[in-house]
Amino acid sequence: EKEGGTCAVGRVQRMDPLFMATSLFRRRRFEECVKICSDILESNPYDQAAWFLKARGLTEQTYVDEVEMEEEGIAELLMEDIAIADVARPGTSLKPPPGTASRRPLSQSGRPVSGFLRPGMQTGRPKTMEQAIRTPRTAMTARPVTSASGRYVRMGTASMLTEPSGPFVDISKLNLRKYAQKPALAKALFEYLFHHENNVRAALELAVQATEACQFGDWWWKVQLGKCYYRLGLYRDSETQFKSALKHFSTVDMFLFLCKVYVKLDQPTTALEYYRKGLAKFSNDTSLLTGIARIHEGLNDMEASVEHYRKVLKCDSTNVEAIACIGTHHFYNDQPEIALRFYRRLLQMGVYNAELFTNLGLCCFYAQQYDMALHCFQRALALASDENTADVWYNIGHVALGLGDTSLAYQCFKLALAANNDHAEAYNNLGVLEWRRGRGEQALACFQSSCHLAQHLYEPHYNIAAALEKIGNLQNSYKSVQTSLAAFPEHNDSKELLKQLEQHFAAL
User: Fold this and answer.
1) Per-position DSSP letters for 357-421, written without gaps between them
2) Cβ-Cβ contacts under 8 Å for 451 (sequence gap 6 or more)
3) Which residues contact 432 (CB under 8 A, 6 or more apart)?
4) At residue 145, does pLDDT exceed 70?
5) Which whole-number Å values give the CA distances from 365 to 265, 338, 380, 401, in the listed order?
6) If you compute the radius of gyration of the chain from its CA atoms, what whole number of angstroms results?
7) Phi/psi of residue 198, each to 5°?
8) Which of 349, 362, 368 is closest to 391 using CA atoms?
9) CA separation for the pair 388, 380 (Å, rounded)
10) What share of the chain in percent tops pLDDT 70?
11) Do the beta carbons of residue 426 and residue 417 sit within 8 Å?
12) Count of CB atoms situated within 10 Å of the CB of 255
């Protein structure tokens, strides 16, 4: 020590490990927090504070917001028995009825595309196992999710990674009734079981014990029961728990969870009713307004959807989903200049991907800003990944057709098919170009491939009918034009072709 000084260097002590772990947790440095807690538990396995903090750190590493997560697997799509009728009344179902068409292009499920990719909104109910396997389920891969657990962490995997010696909690030896008597530890353990271990049944049993321990008076546990029932596919039980929780206490998440259940049950009108009840208590909440806009978009009521997205922008001017959806609405209503303003706003906000530059290029092209369109498509190609390269080349091919350069369009559609061999629209347009070049057999092969890949499209069926009518195959032409009209009853060209064929048959 220095003589005559006030500083004692030798007395400086190391920071308390638990306090350090708590500080790291608050700064979201969860791996370092878990490591320090593991060291504390090695010296004192009964330290409840360190156990609690480690459980919270492990949970936060794999936590996913349940409100926005909605991935449907093949089992849920093909074996779900919730639907009461195959064809619902108009305006009461989110599933598109047969024979409907829109000004917008359709997704693989037959629903008009939205301006923003959301989990669960682009999916439809396939009629065969082949269609379910072929339809991509997630935004990152073309492979379908095999079951509802595909989106969640596999059981035991995350725990084995964080603890090489074994899992942090041995679930088989847990005395859940004892933990249910301790509210703080019970809540941490529940979230660990639910999010980290993905052991929904153990989490449900703990939630039941804890609900009984608090004499059914804690709304938090009722919400967790609802989440467990929803994950297990017991939607009516989930609905009961969320409604019971709303009687005790109201939060925005409760209304969002309850509306999520009604969307799963295909009851959009009831979901809208609870969204409005939520807005009565939490006025101008953007998540509730966005939910209403999504429901209207699913019902193909684009005007009401855009109206609510505008309300979202009044409350939050940086909401990416609202800006993108309004821009898409203006683009498909022949207002590319206005759509361009919204997409430029997204670019100014920092959104920088191939999809945005493709949309900017299309808006510039239809607004007759051809020099900017080419630069945008060049940037889109530079940013494109394996998932969206085909769509970029397909759109460039459309621009080339608009400019009259059929050779460039032909090459673009070929490149789109090279990037994605299941691109039905590219097959259809390539077939048209092949027909113009006098290659009838190749054109019919392209049309048939398009029909096989996307049965909701009416264009390839009409093209087959028109081609067969010109070569004199009237019977098959008649069958194809009927299929086209079944997909889109208001298609005028198909109606005219059908009249011509009927006149031919009458003359015979």
Assistant:
1) HHHHHHHHHHTT-HHHHHHHHHHHHHH--TTTHHHHHHHHHHHHHHHT-HHHHHHHHHHHHHH-T
2) 457, 460, 461, 464
3) 443, 463
4) no
5) 42, 13, 14, 12
6) 29
7) 55, 35
8) 362
9) 10
10) 79
11) yes
12) 25
Token reading at 129: 């196992």
Question: Which of 175, 166, 216, 171 lies closest to 192 in space, CA to CA?
Answer: 171
Q: CA distances (Å), 33 to each of 18, 52, 499, in order?
A: 9, 12, 74
Residue 436: pLDDT band with limits 50, 70, 90: very high
Long-range contacts made by residues 102-109, C-beta under 8 angstroms, separation at least 24? 102/300, 103/332, 103/333, 104/328, 104/332, 105/425, 106/454, 106/456, 106/457, 108/134, 108/135, 108/136, 108/454, 108/456, 109/135, 109/456
Q: How many CB atoms lie within 10 A of CB 363?
A: 26
Residue 442, H or E segment: helix 440-453
Among the residue ranges 48-57, 78-87, 318-327, 434-443, the one predicted with the least confidence is: 78-87
DSSP at 11? G
- Name the percent of the chain in helix, strand, coil, to the closest 5: 65, 0, 35
pLDDT in tens, 37-80: 999 988 888 888 999 999 999 999 988 888 876 655 555 555 55
Do 474 and 501 touch, CB atoms closer than 8 A?
yes
| Tokens at 447, concatenated | 């049309």
CA distance 386 to 45: 49
In this predicted structure, the answer to whether residue 177 has a pLDDT above a threshold of 70 is yes
The pair of structure tokens assigned to 488 is 């889109």
DSSP tag of 194: I
Q: How far is CA 339 from CA 84, 301, 330, 336, in A?
A: 40, 19, 5, 5
504 vs 86: CA distance, rounded Å: 36
Largest CA distance in the chain: 122
How long a stretch of residues is the chain? 508
Q: Which residues fall within 8 angstroms of residue 256, CB to CB, at 6 or more apart? A: 67, 278, 287, 288, 291
